[in-house]
Design brief:
This protein has 273 residues and is mainly α. The protein contains 11 helices and no strands.
Amino acid sequence: MDYLYTIILGVVQGITEFLPISSSGHLLILHNVLDFEVSDQLAFDVMLHLATLASVVICFWSEIVKLARSFIFSLIGKHDEYSRTAWLIVLATIPAGILGFLFDDFIENSINNNASVGIIVVITMLILIGILFILVEKIAKGELKYTDLGWKKAVFVGFAQALALIPGTSRSGITIIAGIKTGMKRQEALKFSFLLSIPIIIGANIIKIPSLFSSGFATEELTVMMFGAVSALVSGVLAIRFFLKFAQSKTLAPFAYYRFILAAVLIIYLLVF
């Protein structure tokens, strides 16, 4: 395993996990177009996702502490706006959790078994979600904070998050679109999206851990993988902070245009190769 490859993959994972530009689209380019391969992919995936989880924790530490504390106190009957929000995050996680458990392997195997179909799916979702970015900005006049959400709106965002199982969608992108549609401010929709990523990342990696230990992993490559994880952590923190600042005054349209360009690159790849 090459240090440079793992660092590049880590940076791509950290940035695309949080910016709404599709991690799967970029990974397709790295794996298929540039022929980037990692020998112990499962172990590396787990490390990268744990690194991006750490990015969210670093950036939202104070909110996470409030939500966790209030969630615990709610179990003994003490409730406030943060305990309600914590339960809504749990509720919004259920649709993606169930559908991911049932269909994630099927979708992943279908894509892996037919690279061309996978690329076509990614291209389609890159374009569709890009169009939604442009359309949703026309109604982005909401004033709600993420702590103001009711259960119906939280579930709506949760079902939108489940669509991220389709490669090319972007989990952050689709949940931000859904959040804006429910009436949240753009920046509040971002915060809710990032907080929603915590249980999803934890759940996805818990499912992978048994396979990781049953198949084993190359301990001699641990140092190389750590370089990738650290680069994912740092780039993830930078991506989150950049996006939050960007969303204060800018629309999502630039990300839509970027997605269209990425889709065009993949279309050219399909036609040429």
